[in-house]
Amino acid sequence: MSETSHKYWLLVTGLVLAVLAAIIISTGMGYIHVSAIDIIQVIAAGLDGSRFVEGLDQAVPFVVMDVRLPRILTAALVGGGLAMSGVIYQGILLNPLADPYTLGVSSGAAFGASLAILANLTMLGQYSVPLFAFCGAVATLFMVLYLSTFNGQMSANTLILSGVIVGAILSAGISFLKYLADEQVAVIIFWLMGSFASRSWSDVGLVAVALTAGSCIGLFYGRDLDIMSLGGRSADSLGVETARTRTVLLLTASLVTAVCVAVSGIIGFIGLIIPHLMRFVVGPNNRRLLPVSILAGAGLLLMADTVTRAVLPVEVPIGVLTALIGGPFFCVIFRRRQRGLRYE
Amino acid sequence: MNDGYELHEVCYAYDGVRAVDDFTITLPRGKFYGIVGPNGCGKTTLLDILIGSRNPDTGTVRFAGRVMHEYSRRELARQVALVPQDFAIGFAFTVEEVVLMGRHPYISRFASPSAEDWRIVEDAMDTIGIRHFTTRYVNELSGGEKQRVVVARALAQDTPVLLFDEATSNLDVRYTLHIFNVVRRLVNDEGKTVIAVIQNLNLAAAYCDEILFMKGGRLLKHGPVSRVMKPSTIKEVFEVESEMRMDSYSGSLQVSFRYRSS
Questions:
Q1: Between the CA of residue B21 and those of B11, B18, B214, what are the distances in Å?
Q2: Beta strand A153-154 pairing with B252-257
Q3: Cβ atoms within 10 Å of A260's Cβ, excluding its own
């Protein structure tokens, strides 16, 4: 027992260090190259509110503190948030193929955002689109929960089916909005493909708050979620408030997803791949799985964003990049799962 | 006051179809009860009501003198354990982890399992004889092995009342008898109460103190084995011909059926 827990903490420490290193290294990459030491100096100065470091080009502190770091931190936090939601969705739906998209939550957010862009709603300034995305996600979640509840009970299967149904309707709605959009269509399409370009510190703060709150709730109910994988009746008889725990966790995961989508657009597959990979490494115990998944998700999305920002000659939308990496992975899981079923 | 279950005019319906119909019964502690009846007669729904997973539409259920819904899930889980019929386990937990889940109602949210918890888990695994595969993954076990893991989990829950929902349906004769012997011993030596849905009438006759015959959601007959286990009852409940005799080899009442209609 103690040996596995020793290994686990080693893994957590390793991941923390890797994410920190990735943040520093990727901040240095880009049109203007900055060395790691300079970055640390700039951040140290920036924490005191200063934008001036002796012996450095005046532009460097601004590039680091106002352009790159907000984008990089947003990418890392969104990656962590999507992975966290993935762990919770997979735990509740008992399905390794579940992620924020399976429940239609992302489509709801996308619909809200498209609506705001099309109607050119600007009464809330730069927050109009994120706010509409958020409302769309929450409304979709309640719709899906309502559809999947029969006789006061809901099952993983009805949840997934309801999510697919609502998601399909919303996708049609988004297509219709695009059709109506005329010259605005490009804005909608780019938003839907996801991007971290020109993120600000307020975005960082928003996702950080959502992720922190979400992971606390996730860890709080971690053991209950483990037990819920035995099925509702067994969980009830083991003293878990199954219905309440499921609702709280679904709401938590969906709110975190909504914030992530609102900030960055649609970024798929992180919430699917990371929990799955991490389950191979640390097992299905959710209280161990959540922290490592958040860290790994942060690292992976940060690296993907850095590749499109600083390595590729043209900036590919991050949502397209993660789908290109994640899609084939999805196929592999699907095949494995089908094989596993046949042997049972 | 009764320290076991008291059900008074309990009804539960799914979309207007009554699965449990006007159930009134008192089940004092310290006995082995068998619930017998045809498929779909409401046995599982009755167990759901007894573990508090479903609330009756009308009527009251009391446990140890208190109305069921006054108990929190956690409190109830320290009193009543369930061995369910279906035991799909979604993820690759080890056998040991699953049995440890039986200790959930005792472990506070931010604590780790204590030495006492581990001792009880190990005892439960020894009792059921699954100690030799504690580190295997449950989703790789056979149906019968899984079922024994789930029984061990219920024992680890260390409750005065144990409910079994056809819990030995996947087991071969050897393990079926082993589990029934373990359970019977718990009733005799530790005064536990066992309420088990049993399909096999001979097993029910051999191990139970009292039998509840159910049909169409109703309680048809209830009483000590020797009084209610009769060909006339079996005819009424299952609509099959049978003969009942005292079997000297098993030392209990046993049923024989007329297998062919010719």
A1: 5, 6, 10
A2: unpaired
A3: 35
SS3 A199: coil
User: Within an 8 Å CB–CB cutoff, is residue A247 touching chain B?
Assistant: no
Chain B residues whose CB is inside 8 A of the A236 CB are 51-53, 73
pLDDT of residue A127: 72
A227 → closest Cβ in B51, B76, B104? B104
Q: In B, which residues are within 8 Å of A279 by CB distance?
A: 91-92
Q: Spell out the domains of chain B, with CATH numbers in brackets.
A: 29-53+72-224 (3.40.50.300)
CB B101 within 8 A of CB B121: no
Q: How many helices (H) and strands (E) does chain A have?
A: 15, 2
CB nearest to B82's CB, from A94, A229, A233: A233
Q: A126 to each of A110, A121, A248, A262, B149, how far by Cα in Å?
A: 16, 10, 30, 11, 56
Helix, strand, coil % in chain A, rounded to nearest 5: 80, 0, 20
Q: Tell if the CB–CB gap between B93 and A94 is shorter than 8 Å.
A: no
Q: Which helix (H) or strand (E) holds A256?
A: helix A242-264
Q: Does A94 touch chain B (CB under 8 A)?
A: yes
B147 touches chain A (CB under 8 A): no
| Stretch A288-312: mean pLDDT | 92
Give the span between the Cα atoms of B234 and A240, in whole angstroms: 38
Q: Give the relative orientation of helices A185-193 and A105-118 as an angle to the nearest 10 degrees.
A: 150
Least Cα distance to B213 among B31, B18, B43, B15 occurs for: B43
Q: Is residue A284 within 8 Å of residue A232, measured between CB atoms?
A: no
CA dihedral A212, A213, A219, A222 (to 10 degrees): -130
Cβ atoms of residues A30 and A309 within 8 Å: yes
Answer whether B56 touches A (CB < 8 Å). no
- How far the first Cα of chain A sits from its last, in Å, is 29
Contact A237 B105 (CB under 8 A): no
Instruction: Determine how β-strand B32-36 pairs with β-strand B210-215.
Output: parallel
- Higher pLDDT, residue A132 or B197: B197
The model's pLDDT over B112-153, given as tens digits with 9 standing for 90+, comes to 889 999 999 999 999 999 988 888 988 888 888 888 999 999
Question: What is the spatial distance between Cα A61 and Cα A54, in angstroms, rounded to a whole number?
Answer: 11
Of A229, A234, A241, which is closest to B73 when you measure between CB atoms? Answer: A241
Q: Which residues are CB-contacts of A30 (< 8 A; sequence separation ≥ 6)?
A: A63, A68, A309, A310
DSSP characters for A208-254? HHHHHHHHHHHHHTHHHHHHHTT-HHHHHHTT--HHHHHHHHHHHHH
Name all domains of chain A by residue range, CATH numbers in brackets. Answer: 74-343 (1.10.3470.10)
**CB-based contact (8 Å) between B71 and chain A?**
no
Show the 3-state SS of A152-173.
CEECHHHHHHHHHHHHHHHHHH
Is the sign of the CA dihedral B166, B167, B173, B178 positive or negative? negative
Rounded to two decimals, the ipTM of the complex is 0.86
Query: Token pair 């508090």 is at which residue?
Result: B52
